[in-house]
Structures are given as C-alpha cells and as structure tokens.
Amino acid sequence: MRRTEVVVTGLGAVTPLGGDVESTWNALLAGESGIRGSVLPGREGTALPDTVAGTMAVDPAERLPPVQARRLDRSQQAALTAAAEAWADAGAPEVDADRLASAIGTGIGGVGTLLKQDDALEAAGVRRVSPRTVPMLMPNAAAALISIEYGARAGVYTPVSACSSGAEAIALGARLIRAGEADVVIAGGTEAAITPVTVAGFAQAQALSRHTGDPASASRPFAADRSGFVIGEGAAVVVLESAEHAGARGAHVHAVLAGAGIAADAHHITAPAPDGSGQIAAMHKALAQAGLAPEQISHINAHATGTEVGDSAEARAIGKVFGRATVTAPKAALGHLFGAAGAIEALIAVLSVEHGVIPPTRNLTVAGVGEDIDLDVVAERRDVPQEAVLSNSFGFGGQNVSLVVTHARHHHHPSRTAPTTP
Description:
The chain is α/β, with parallel strands linked by helices. The chain has 13 helices and 13 strands. The radius of gyration is 20 Å and the shape is globular.
C-alpha cells in the first residue's frame, strides 16, 4: 500500500526579519539582520545589561482586532497572525472539521503574561489580576485559539520540547495525516519570551552571546569567535495536507514534507550527548522516512545557535552522517526563536527547495568559520536547484528533531507553477 504523502500548501510567519513570509525571506536572502540593541534596558538594582535581541519586526497586535489583541499573550498574537497568513496562502481550504487538526509548539507559552500579572498582584493586590490570566499564560492556548478560529476538531496538540517544539509540531502534524487521523493540519511554533528573567537565566547559564558592538553581528553561528546565542521571538505556521486532499482541490504545493526523525539523547538536561548519538539518530530517521540517501540532500538548515559547544557538536554529528555537507544557519539573522525556531527554519527549508536558493549565513565574513567546523557553511546566497533539504532542531532535554522537505516535482499530484524568487 502506498504511504500517505504529506505536502506543504500554506506558509505564514512573523519574525525579527519581517511581518510575513515574503518580507522575512527577502531580508534573509539579502543578508539583513533582525537583531536589535537595547531591547530590555538595564534595570536598576538587577545588574541586567542592555539586551540585544531579535524582536518581531511587526507588532502582531497590530494585525488583530484591538479587543482580541488585548485578550491574548504576545506569543498567542504571533501564532494567530502567522496562522492567518498560512491559511490564506493555502487558499483557505474547505475541509471537514473532524479532519482538521492544530499543532503549535512553544517553549514556555505566555510567560510575559505570567510575569506582568505577578507584578500586578504584588503591587496592587488580587483585584488587579486579570481574570484572563490563565488562558493567556497556558502553553496550549495558541494551538487552541487556532483550533477555534478555523474549526479544527480533529485534535489540538502542543509539543513543549524547548528549541525543538516547532519542528516537533510539524513532525506530529505529518504523523496525524499519515495515521489517517487528519487530512489537513495547521502546524508550527510560537514564542515571545524576551523578558528580564529569561534573559537573566540564560545569561547566568553563560549561554548568551557576549559579542559587543553592532547588535547585527552578535549572533554568529559556526563563526570562529561565536560566544552564545541571541534571544528572539516570533511565530511560523505551515498548512500540511495529504497529497490526495491537496490534489483534489488543485492546491499549490510549496514542497513535500518527505520525512521526520525524532530521537532523544537521554544524556543531560542541557548539554548534547558528546557522541552526537541523538542528533545522528534523528537525521538518519528523517532520511529513512524520506527514502533518501545522505548524498541526495542538497543542503542542511542547521540548528546552529551560535554557542561554542552546541555548534561544534552539531557539526560533528552532521559530519558523521553526511561528511563535509553544505549548511546554512538562519539564526545568524533571526536570533534563536526557541519554540518557533524549528518551525521558521522548516519554512525556510521549504522556500529554499521551492525557489532553488540557499540563504546566506551572516557574520562569517570577518572571523571566518571555526576550525572545529568542517562544513561548507554558505556565507553568500547560492542560487542552485534544491531537490531535498534537511532541517535540524535540537532542544534542551536532549530532544532532537530533523525534517526533510523535497521539491514539489517529486510529488505525484500536479501542482500549479510556483512563484518566482526575488
């Protein structure tokens, strides 16, 4: 029996590079940066330095009716904004409500609401706490709100797996379609956690970039002088569909989600396994599900956050599977979007395949690639046909997800002509 094929028919995003997919993609290809300085001014008595971060280029609240926006945490606003774009891009498909599911990952949910309401409680007492506090802070709210908005009754799922959450949600969406539980899944990730306490926590763990000077040069994946990641925020959502359902309605197919691999390190709560076993297993599983050999992957969209240990470990793992592979690292331009990172990078992989271009990795021009990175890291955009791209997401907890997307021409339903690349 032929395995159910899963295709990507809708794309939506709000990121540090742009308020939608097109502006994000164009800025990424142009080598621009979404990293800004003084996002959180240093607070007296906390010793918290001015924070460099990838804040969303467009306030998602501006895209929503004011009354609705006030009732949502920023992470939920971002998810609904990205979902609306993805749904419209997919042609607002007509689908049986019982065959439509929602899967939106997040690292932490409505932490901004939690902190704000705790401040209100301490400053002014219980009567100043919003009655909407709980639905605004619960991590499953973004997925649930999307389910309500589009009438998705096949299930609401919220993977919470740190930096892998968005990729895991997309893998889960594909699994639901292959299992016959849904025909269409709205899947992705969202995060809005640029707060003093999260920044302080990462700073204390010595995970944040120590680069001083131009904020745009702070995020330096694979660079010889990388010193940590830059915190970012945003959301990315894709519409996944069975090829049969997409074909029956003549949908435009951006790409095929050909494979997903999930594996755990079972090693340490923050550090990757030294032998790279979990990362290697996730990549092998994704390739096996896609039915591809390593040499058939055109390039790898690396997790590459810009930490010394993490980038080195990923480079070794990639080397063991692919040899000296061609890679790109979008976090140089976006920062690290945590629960949304795997979703935005999967979306970028889809666009890479659709348009035949590998986006550049910023900030490699001066220091060059680290000696411990034996990879072909793309520093200038490359226009070259992309048949298959693998995207990696590796999270705290040893949670590893790899996704493989392939060109729409490999899918057995005819699709309309793709738009041209800028």
